[in-house]
Amino acid sequence: MTNYKLEKINNIIEEELGQIVQQEIDFDQGVFMSVSQVEISESLGSAKVWIDAWPIEAGADVLKILRKHKGVLRCGLAGRVKMRRVPDLKFFIDREEIEDEQQRRKVEEILEEIKKTKTQGIVNLPTAGRQGTRKKLKTSNR
């Protein structure tokens, strides 16, 4: 099957599965999830589904719920997508989202540290190996 057709099927399943999850599955209050990517096999027999969960800490619980309701999700897909056989769904947490969140938190920590040092009047800038190389400026008494 051509890459174009597989990509089109991936996009359709991603969109439809996201809608089915929103309509059929109840998560704890304050927990949200979205389907970030789908990759169907060339045989169309299985599909890897990557999800994003907010807050990030709820990802493992969301994954358990999705795996528990896999049959409901496949039935929902069967009613919306015209395929000879609805693929078996395998759910994964999108690691890129977790890495992005960790980087965002690190940047926020650095910015907070900068704010603290500015309010205290202390500026600690890295010298990058320039210690002891400062030269005194010569002043002339003309």
From TrEMBL:
Region called Disordered, residue ranges: 122-142
Matching InterPro entries: KH_dom-like_a/b (IPR015946), RbfA (IPR000238), RbfA_dom_sf (IPR023799), Ribosome-bd_factorA_CS (IPR020053)
Coiled coil listed as a keyword: yes
Record-level Gene Ontology MF annotations: ribosomal small subunit binding
Gene3D superfamilies: 3.30.300.20
Domain of life: Bacteria
Residue spans of biased composition, Basic residues class: 132-142
Coiled-coil region(s): 93-120
Gene Ontology annotations of biological process type: rRNA processing
Keyword line: Coiled coil, Ribosome biogenesis
SUPFAM superfamilies in UniProt: Ribosome-binding factor A, RbfA
Cellular component, GO annotation: cytosol
Protein name as catalogued: Ribosome-binding factor A
Organism: Candidatus Kuenenbacteria bacterium GW2011_GWA2_42_15
